[in-house]
Amino acid sequence: MSGGMGGGPGVRLPWALAGLLAGAALQLVQPRLWGLAAYGAALAAGLLLMAPRLWRQPVLVRRLAMAAGAAVAMFGLCGLRAAAFQAQALDAGLEGRDLRVAGVVAAMPQSGDAGLRFRFAVESAPPGVRLPPLVELAWYATAMGGSEPTQPAEPQRAAPALRAGQRWEFTVRLKAPHGARNPHGFDYELWLWEQGVQATGYVRAGPRDVPPRLVSSSPWRQSVEQVRQHVRDAIAAQLAGADPRAAGVVAALVTGDQRAIDRADWDLFRATGVAHLMSISGLHITLFAWIAAAAVGWLWRRSARLCRWWPAPSAALAGGVLLAAGYALFSGWGVPAQRTVGMLAVVALLRLAGRRWPWRQVWLLACAAVVLADPWALLQAGFWLSFVAVGVLFASDFVAAGASPEGAGGLFGSIKRFLREQWVVTLALTPLTLLLFGQVSAVGALANLAAIPWVTLVVTPLALLGVLWAPLWSAAATSLAPLAALLQALAAWPLAVVPPAAPLWAGVAAVAGGTCLALRWPWRLRVLGLPLLVPALCWQPAWPAPGRFELLAADVGQGNAVLVRTAHHALLYDAGPRYGAHSDAGGRVLVPLLRALGVRLDTLMLSHRDTDHTGGAPAVLADQPGAALTGSIASEPDLLALRQATPCVAGQHWDWDGVAFEVLHPSQDDLDQPGQRPNALSCVLRIVDAQGVAALLVGDIERPQEQALLARGAPLTASVLLVPHHGSKTSSSAAFLGAVAPRIALVQAGYRNRFGHPVPAVVQRYRAQGAALAASPACGAAQWRSVAPQQWQCEREAHPHYWQHRP
Q1: Any idea where the domains of the chain sit in the sequence?
Q2: Which of 195, 307, 745, 761 is the most exposed place for a label (fewest CB within 10 A)?
């Protein structure tokens, strides 16, 4: 290590790297951004703290000054980047307007349920209009239902065969990036922020719109994306007769196109803990670098002149890293690829310079290199999984073990070393996986034991070599079959996925405990990590007290889904919309939410058969085999085929843990009357706790049903009301609101939905009644507890971030 113990650069560097990471993390937790001047001042102050004039101070002062200076400077630099990026955001006044734009298809388009999605680099816009440089667009093939907030309502011209690099001119409608915000849910807005996307929308290609026009097709623009798209299309053509799900995995391994993988396969990979292997991961990049280095070294040694100019080992090392960087760029340059290339580059540069740094400095330098390039990588689960795994392997002397007698011994030694690596990584990452994802695969270690060598040494090499000889793609797809069968068998085991999500303090303690168990310490010290695992692995979220209940109105877009929990029971009222043929609120929102909360449903009540209320039911029922099904779905054979169902009828009532449930509508006469519209048969459920605090869930009832409830003298008074029909003008009559007298009104609607829900007149009616509106576009998921009936919590307000959209 360069530098002496007197505090030279080698001593100060780890402190500077640690400070850099801390400064980035501190800026990322800001709920709102400061001005550019404040961040500029922070950057300047940080650089002054690291000035050479302080290097003659005592060692501790120099170290602390270096760490503090790096932290403050990185805080300022990260803030400057965030503020400059946010300044390019879409003007709210441009949302929903028809805009004629021109630009370039910036990435290979992705086929979706209803058409194409693609990144579009805007080059020109109407005079006086400033648009973000990069937007994500959809080109819908046909008109669909109304669950997509910006989806067109009329037939569209068929989407052409878009290709990366093409310059197009068309009419678009844009909106700010807006995603669902739920506890433990995926942060779509952060994901788009990291991708550099500041607006989403769709191409207006209806019969009354100005037709889209292909301006030019450049052979050099977006050349890497063009090659990626060509290879992806070639894989699809080669595997046209094979299992399309296997074809998607092969395409993902070669080109990094993770959207090619079927959603059901992603569910399987996550349930068995092997999702990290099914896209371009650090393991794949490292394998490619090793193969590339071996090939470069072999070719280099064939030339005596080249060997005299530069030693073959050095050329192999540099060539392996450069080719790995090329592969990472070809695969889409995702954050996992960036991390791995950064780590490989750091190690290679140190070796080429003849330096032998301690592993802590190498590890910190690689972390800092990634964060310096992309500070928001700190918010990605993959960052922590990758670097914690590498750090634990270093700390446990696994890398050194390869040169020790334990690492030797031919095949037996390699097997022993591989098994120990699996054991160490599993111990360290299982608690971290529980903290990051709210669940952990109990069969993950066994699944990875088979999947890592098979995918790394068989499937991935065949998939990559298929670029040179296409039939090898078929071999790669065939080789996935036995692995898929094994994973299916493991996923069927009881408790294959162990919920629920633990709080931050318990997760951090568990990670520390797993690390203690993995280190090469005496066993009497290792066992001290066991107590640290207990809080996270045995964590159970707090449920309501007996006689009380709580509601969680999930953010599912244009649709209803309300979770009701008592002390020992749970009911889900509606299951959200279907977003497309292979995507719905059940799989994307509700199943992960229920798992993270550790909820086993007793009942799924589907208020009526509209798809914005039943779209997620198949996924929920598949994940909740013990849930009873009830609702107004008698005329829906597809739903009834999922599980035996009982109709909801006025007069039904039951008691859970001292909380009374009563169905107020529809009556038996309503059900017997032919030709009733689905909305008119919506199940109306009233829930009352032991203290008389009530909630009313009403589905999509309209004025006639509201009047019928009033005429029957139904008990309607409630502290919280699920706004009828998402705030439609056909519901929420003044007489009905007067009878309910809600303090809080929950509106579940999509952002900028094409129906305009909730309509202004209805909003004004609730305000006149004195009710506070909690609408999901501005609130996200809303939580309410009967123990505090005048209070509620919005997910967007409880966990604010500066990158999130504020309608």
Answers
A1: 9-86, 92-219, 222-273+443-498, 283-395, 397-441+502-540, 550-798
A2: 761
Cβ pair 616, 585 in contact under 8 A: yes
CA-wise closest residue to 650 among 670, 678, 628: 670
Length of the chain (residues): 807
At position 254, the amino acid (one-letter code) is V
Same fold, 92-219 and 550-798: no
The residue type of 759 is V
| Distance separating alpha carbons of residues 371 and 338, to the nearest angstrom | 10
The residue behind tokens 């102050």 is 45
**How confident is the model over 14-27, as pLDDT tens digits?**
899 999 999 999 99
By CB neighbour count within 10 A (0-12 exposed, 13-18 middle, 19+ buried), where does 47 fall?
middle
CA distance 234 to 637: 40
Is residue 119 within 8 Å of residue 136, measured between CB atoms?
yes
Of 543, 549, 540, 550, the closest CA to residue 596 belongs to: 540
Non-local CB neighbours of 542 within 8 Å, separated by 6+ positions: none
Report residue 8: phi and psi, to 5°: -65, -175
Question: What pTM does this model have?
Answer: 0.87
CA dist 221 and 167 (Å) reads: 9
Question: Please, which pLDDT band fits residue 2 given cuts at 50, 70 and 90?
Answer: very low
Average pLDDT over residues 416-435: 71
Q: C-alpha angle with apex 428: 424 to 430, nearest 5 degrees?
A: 115
CA angle, residues 561, 563, 566, in degrees to nearest 5: 160
Alpha helices in 438-497 (DSSP H): 444-454, 460-465, 471-491
Name residue 102's beta-bridge partners: 124, 169
Q: Do the beta carbons of residue 554 and residue 563 sit within 8 Å? A: yes
Tokens of 300: 């280099």
Cis preceding-peptide flag for 503 (omega within 30 of 0): no
Going by C-alpha positions, the residue among 804, 806, 664 that lies closest to residue 724 is 664
Query: Rounded to 10 degrees, what is the CA torsion of 305, 308, 310, 316?
Result: 70
Judge whether residue 649 has pLDDT over 50: yes
Domain 550-798: which CATH number of 3.40.50.300, 3.20.20.60, 3.60.15.10, 3.30.70.3340 = 3.60.15.10
Q: Which letter, b or e, does each residue of 176-208 get, where b requires 16 or more Cβ atoms within 10 Å of its Cβ?
A: bbbbbbbbbbebbbbbbbbeebbbbbbbbbbee
Instruction: Say yes or no to pLDDT of 521 above 90.
Output: no
- CB burial string 750-789: b at 16+ within 10 A, e below: bbbbbbebbbeebbebbeebebebbbbbebbbbbbbbeeb
Residue-wise pLDDT for 350-386, tens only, equals 888 887 778 788 888 888 988 998 899 898 877 887 7
Residue type, 182: N
**Token pair of 658 as six digits:** 């001292």
Per-residue pLDDT tens for 232-276?
Answer: 889 988 988 777 778 889 988 888 887 778 777 888 888 888 887
**CATH code for residues 92-219:** 2.40.50
DSSP 211-278: PPEEEEE-SSTTHHHHHHHHHHHHHHHHTTTS-HHHHHHHHHHHH--GGGS-HHHHHHHHHTT-GGGS
Phi-psi region of 64 (alpha: psi -120 to 50; beta: other; left: phi over 0): alpha
| Residue 560, token pair as written in the block | 């209803």
The per-residue b/e assignment along 283-315, b for 16 or more CB within 10 angstroms, e otherwise, is bbbbbbbeebbeebbeebeeeeeeeeeeebeeb
d(CA 462, CA 467) in angstroms, rounded, equals 9
Q: Which of 541, 540, 542, 573 is nearest to 556 (CA)?
A: 573
